[in-house]
Amino acid sequence: MPGYHTRKIDVQVGAFHCRIRALSDHMQFADPEGEAANAGICSASWSLFGQLWPASRVLAQAVKHIDIHNRRIIELGCGLGLPSLLLQSRGADITASDHHPLSEPFLDYNSALNKLPPIPYLDLPWADTALNVGKFDLIVGSDILYEGNHAELVGDVIGRIAADDAKVLITCPGRGYRNRLTRRLEELGFEVTETRMAFSEDQVAPFKGRLLCYRRGNLKQAA
């Protein structure tokens, strides 16, 4: 027994249908070898990676028709990796990244469950400035600004891995740290477009959630 319980969720994003293995609830915790503790993940946040969050569905919708031609793409803080799975189904050059010790095995399981090739995975601690992973043309992430220091960490990661001509898509359900990220990325030459979006069917306008789109270089004026 792995020490935690899971369930399978049917997900539909446009014409893309998949099944995803997720943790059964928010109360799961299992770290017998101390891997999560060594990665700085406490028991209270251990289960966050294993939930299918609304922001992940919104991001998957946003990348459903995005241009993937000749683009190296990475998902930051992928968790269960729904957007990465969708991009993999489209034949994108997609790399998923996280720092939770179970993100990679869950991603591998869900790729196989949906008869997709394995998705390349990076263990990417945002504070590790020495890690060289190369440059990416498109960087995506969902609900990755939920702690006070995340905006600075994410901004610095993007600064290290973004190509000169780069696009960044972040879905944020309305947390108060997005302006910090915007200021940091503006310092790095990015311009931002914010689109208000519903993150659940019961939300009514004006929506708190945002799709944050940052562009730099030749992509600044792109639609």
TrEMBL record:
The keyword Transferase applies. Pfam families: Methyltransf_16. Keywords: Methyltransferase, Transferase. This is Methyltransferase. GO terms for biological process: methylation. GO terms for molecular function: methyltransferase activity. Transmembrane segments: none annotated. Gene3D superfamilies: Vaccinia Virus protein VP39. It comes from Isoalcanivorax beigongshangi.
